[in-house]
Amino acid sequence: MAPQHRRWLRWGAIILVVLLLSAILLAAAFPVAPFRERAERTLSERFGRPVTIGALERTPAFSFTPTIRIRDVRIPQPAWAGAGDLARIATLDMQIRSLGLLTGRVDPKNVTASGVRLDLVRTAEGRTNWDRPGGAKDKGSGSPLRLDGLTVRDAVVRYRDGKQDRQFTIAVTSDATGFAARGQGVVRGAAVRVAASGAAITAGDQPWPFRARLDGPALAMTAQGRMDTPLDTERMTLAVTARASSLKLIDAVIEAGLFGTQPVQLSADVRHDGPKWQVENLRGRIGRSAFTGKLGVDKTSGRTMLDGDIRASQLDFDDLADDAGLAKAAALERAVGPRVVPNTRVDIGKITSTDGRITFRIDRILSREPSAMRSASGVLVLDRQLLSVEPLRIGLTKGAITGKAVIDQRGGRPAPTVTLALDLGDSSIAALAGGGDVTGRLAARVRLSGVGETIRSAVGRSSGQIGIVARDGALPAKMAAMLGFDAGRAMTADDDARARLRCAVVRLDVTGGRGRFDPLIVDTSASQTRGTGGVVLPAETIAAKLTGAPKHNSLLRIPGSVLVSGTLSSPQVVVPQETKSVGNILKGLGRAITGKQGPVAGNADCDALSRRAIGR
Asked: Tell me, what's the pLDDT at 230?
C-alpha cells in the first residue's frame, strides 16, 4: 500500500475514534432542559389534551448513569371524565444509561416517584381515560420493564369502573423492604379491602414473588405466586382462591362474562404467558353443586379461544341462578303456570369474539322437585356465534335423551335460531311419570327449529315434528274400558284387573309453534282411542277431542266424545254435557238392550304408527 494511502487510513481511524468519543462524551453530558417542551408536545399528542411538565433536570452534570428528574407533571382528565387530573406527579427520578442514547434506547435503571396521584376512569360503555383519543389502544413493546430498583412514596391510585360497577382507592409504596398496595373499594355494592405485596424490586431477571387479596363479607379473592420478572404481569404463575355470594361478583373482577349464582367457592392453579392463560386443578362449589376441571384461554389470534373440560360430581340447576333470578323464575311460573319446556336463556349475541370447545360431564343431577333426569354429558363448541352441543346425552331414571342442540346467532341476528334434534330411547312410562298404574316401553323424537331468546320462546315459534311412542305395557282394565267408552265394563271390572297396552302413539306436526296431532291413538287389548286437535306453544295448551271404541261387545257403551284441555303439565279431561246427559245415557242403554252398540275397534298397526312418529 502506498504511504499516502496509509496516512489517509490513519487519519480516518483517528477521526472515527474522535467522533465516537465525542458522541460518548455528549451522551454523558447531554443537557435535558431543552427537551421539556418536546416532551410536553409528545405527551399532549398521546393523551389528546395539554400535558404540562414543571421542570426537567439531570444530575450530575457529567455521568454515564445520570438521573433525570421530572417535576410537577400534570395530565388533565378528558372532558367526559369530569374535572381534575388523570395524573399528577410531584417528582419522578429516572436513572438511565447514557450510552443507550447512542442506540436510541432510553431504559430506566432506577426509578423513584413521589407525590403520585392517579385517577383512572372507565365508563359503562368501556371508554377509558388512559387510552389514546378515539379509543385506540397502546400496543406496547411486548417485553416487560426491567428495573434495578423502584421506589414509590406517597402514591394514591383511584379507579372508577362503570362497566363492572366497581371502584377502588389504593395507596402504593415500594422500597428496599418490598412492594405494598393497600386500600378499599366497592364491587357491585359489596365492600372490600384491598391488599397486595411483593418482594423488593431489585436488579436481575429472577422470579418475583407476590400476593394479592380482596377481602369482604360478600367477596374474597386471593392470588399468590411468582411473576417471571418483577411487575411482569404478562408472565406469571399463581394459585387463586375465591369466595363470593354469587359468581357474578367474581366476574366483576376477572371479567369473564359469568352469571349470577348461589354462593360459590373455588380454587385453581393459573399460568399466564402473554396472550395465553391456562387454568388447572379447578375445584369449586356453587350452592350444593360441586365441580372440577381445567380451562385454556388463548388470545393469540385476536379472538378468545377456549379449550376446557368440566366435570360436576353433582349439579343442581337452581344453583346456576342467584336469588333474584330464582325469584323471577318463580314469579313467571306463578303467572303462566308450570311448563315442560324450560325458559333457559340462549341469547349469545354479545359473545362476539369468543370461540372454543368445552367438554362437560354431570355425574348426578340434583333437583328439589321430582325429576327423571339423573346425569348429563356433552361437547360444547362455539364458532363465531354458532353454538352446538353435540353429542348431548341426558341420563334418565331409565333410558337417556341423546342428540344435539344448535344455537345460531351469526350475522348480527337480534335473536338466535335454536335447532333441537333429540331422541329418547330405552325408557319407560313409569320412569318418566315417577310410577303409576300405566307401564310400557317409551321412546320419543324431537325435531324442531325456531327463533327466540330462550328455549321456550324458540320452541313457541318453531316448526318441525314431535313424536312419542309407548309400547308393550299394561294399564288398569277400568281405564282401558273408559278409553273405549265402555261405561259398563269400567264400573264392573275388578280393581286389580289389567289390560295390555299395545301402543300409544302421538305425532305432533308443528308449524309456527302450533302443533297438530297426526295421529293421536291409544290401542289396548280392550279398546282403542283416537284424537284430533293439537297443542299451542309456548303456552303448551291442549285442545283435543277423543273418541273411542271397545274391541269386544260392551256392557254399556256411551256414545259421544271427551275433550282434553289445560296444559301439558296439567291436562284436564272434560266430558261434554251432551255426552253425559240423561238422554245420551238412555241411548246407550237402549243400544245395549238391542245389542246394536256400533262397530268394535280392531288392532292398530303399531309398527307402522311407530315408524311414522319416531322413525322406528
From this structure: 86
- Quote the domain boundaries for residue 295: 272-428
**Model confidence pLDDT, tens digit, residues 539-594:** 999 999 999 889 987 766 676 678 889 998 888 876 655 544 545 454 545 555 55
Neighbour-count burial for 229-254, b at 16+ CB within 10 Å, e otherwise: bbbbebebebebbbbbbbbbbbbbbe
Strands 365-366 and 304-316, sheet pairing: parallel
- What pTM did the predictor assign? 0.82
d(CA 501, CA 484): 13
Asked whether residue 415 falls in the same domain as residue 477, the answer is no
Residue 158: the pLDDT is 97
Phi and psi, residue 247, nearest 5°: -60, -25
Which regions of 139-189 does DSSP assign to beta strands (E)? Answer: 149-161, 166-175, 178-187
Rg of the chain taking only CA atoms, in angstroms: 38
Q: 3-state SS of the chain: helix, strand, coil percent to 5?
A: 20, 50, 30
Looking at the domain assignment, is residue 360 inside a domain?
Answer: yes
Q: How far apart are CA 469 and CA 51, in angstroms?
A: 77
Report yes or no: 84 and 77 within 8 Å, Cβ to Cβ. Answer: yes
Across the strands, what pairs with 110?
95, 149
Question: Cis before residue 60, ω within 30 degrees of 0?
Answer: yes
Do both 280 and 362 map to the same domain? Answer: yes
DSSP H or E run through 135: none
Is 237 among the domain residues? no
Please say if the pLDDT value at position 480 is more than 90.
Answer: no
Q: Which of 403, 428, 453 is the last residue of a domain?
A: 428
pLDDT band per the 50, 70, 90 thresholds, residue 613: very high
